[in-house]
Amino acid sequence: MSRYIFVFPGSFLLLISLLSFVNIIYSYYFNLYLNVSSYLPTLISSLFLGLILVFYKSFNFKKITIYQKIFTVVLGYLILPVLISFPYYFSIYNITFIDSYFEAISGFTSTGFTIFENIKHIDSSLILWRSTSQWIGGLYFLFCIILLIDLFDNKLKNLFTNFITFNSSEFLKQSFKIVLIYVFLTFFIFLILKFINLRNFDALNFALTIISSGGFKPINEINYLLKNDFKIIMFSLTFLLSFFSLFLIYNLVFLKNKYLNFFTEDFYLLLYLLFIISIFFIFFSDKNFSLLLLSITSSVSNIGIFYYEDSNRLSFLYLILVIIGGSFFSTSSGLRFFKILTLIKFSLNELLSHSKPKQILINKVMFGNDKVDYDVINKYFLSILIFVISLTTITFLLSLSGIKFENSIKLGLLTIMNTVNSSLYALQDFNFSNLNISAKVSLICFMIIGRVEFITLIILIKKYLFKN
Questions:
Q1: Greatest distance between any 2 Cα atoms in the chain
Q2: How confident is the model over 99-113, as pLDDT tens digits?
Q3: Can you give the pLDDT at residue 419?
Q4: Closest listed residue to residue 245, CA positions, set 259, 266, 268, 260
Q5: Closest CA to 68 of 416, 386, 460, 360
Q6: Rounded to two decimals, what is the model's pTM?
């Protein structure tokens, strides 16, 4: 078995141990002694396991298969949150293990569902740990994209690399670049939030959450922090850093030969964003522009954070924006804008081919310069079908748990898209702590499925159930 299978999760175990140690230092520095011991199980177990996986020499370096990569990614989403859940479980708040694991999964998948009804009732070190879990999860997700690069079509891969596949040296090079950019953007968001006079603790927690497209908040309602339009607009603009490609700013600054393929998706995303903002501004001008901007950026980036106010009138439109999502190489979820754009182009060409048969001779590319790759189109259509099946399944399971149908379908959609419930989607008062175990397990499973995409699970099933 390839050593990379063990080094990959082992590296994140060491990162978890490092950040749990930071939380212990933070607790001692601010005299938060009540929960300081709750981080020790995470520190010790993650450090011990991480060192074994990273430095144990018996594993070889043979080439890792795509099935091993998928298995490693899925296993990481199951195992790493167990260690993240320890500070919740061993805290003074008498949280059950299922609730602790639910909170950890919600953080690690950058979803933002929480079993805490009032953030004011928990100490600041645990609030920081929640945001930290999302930051780790966002970084893990980006590494997973690199690890599973072979699953994506060449057009998407060329949006940030000219490599068809990654060898070990290229993987390390890209991984190091991701870490630097991810840390830099986190610090950049922190500076912006400090510029609008957020206190250090709130700015840090929001920075960790926003860069990972998470939904955890350090306070109950953000309207106490954003008291004027300028602050709201600046806060909204930070959401776009997890909407566009992680490499956008890096490529703009450092890329010498700026090939168009590196910026194509971000250019379309910019046009899409401007179009959405214009439409909302024209047709819903009765609402405050800064709040509209916050609503739009929060939805397209799959963050979901918003004011505590009634937004039922537009909740359906915001859910559509959540479904579409953001860039291929960003921490946002959704079906991904570039996939939907490609499918729309293909569908229009299919329709035109019936009125203009000569289009068949040029592979129906009236709306693009590239020839149609039917394998890619089939994969995109399959992802849409899988989304429908996933949404139907989670809605059915939640309905069986006693949740009314309207809330079940909204909650199911947000779960698959890893977006927090808020007043944007008329779910701000939904209580996760009161859900039964079956509902929590269902949400846990589909939060993971939403992050790894169901298509990877289908590939595993095909490998082990359909040998031929």
A1: 76
A2: 999 999 999 999 999
A3: 94
A4: 266
A5: 460
A6: 0.90
Contact between 397 and 442 (Cβ < 8 Å): yes
Distance CA 296, CA 287 (A): 13
Place of tokens 């701000």: 428
CA torsion angle 214 215 221 222 (round to 10) = 30
The Cα 203–Cα 193 span in angstroms is: 5
Strand partners, 60: 2
Tell me how crowded residue 467 is: count the other CB atoms within 10 A of its CB.
6
Q: Between the CA of residue 248 and those of 165, 258, 261, 269, what are the distances in Å?
A: 21, 11, 12, 12
Predicted confidence at residue 365, as pLDDT, reads 46
Find how far residue 356's CA is from the centre of its chain: 42
DSSP string, 368-422: -SSPP-HHHHHHHHHHHHHHHHHHHHHHHHHHHTT--HHHHHHHHHHHHTT----
Q: For residues 189 and 204, give the distance between their C-alpha atoms in angstroms, rounded to a whole number.
A: 9
Strand partners, 341: none
Q: Is there a contact between 245 and 265 (Cβ–Cβ < 8 Å)?
A: yes
Q: What are phi and psi of 228, to 5 degrees?
A: -145, 170
Instruction: Concatenate the DSSP letters of all residues of 443-454 into one string.
Output: HHHHHHHHHH-H
| Backbone dihedral angles phi then psi of residue 60, each to the nearest 5 degrees | -95, 180
d(CA 186, CA 204): 9
Q: Which residue's entry shows tokens 């993650």? A: 46
Q: Is the pLDDT of residue 332 over 70?
A: yes
Mapped onto helix, strand or coil, the DSSP state of residue 148 is: coil
Specify the pLDDT at position 203. Answer: 96
Nearest Cα residue to 33 out of 41, 22, 42, 25: 25
**Looking at residue 177, what is its pLDDT?**
87
Query: Could you tell me the two tokens for 48?
Result: 């011990």
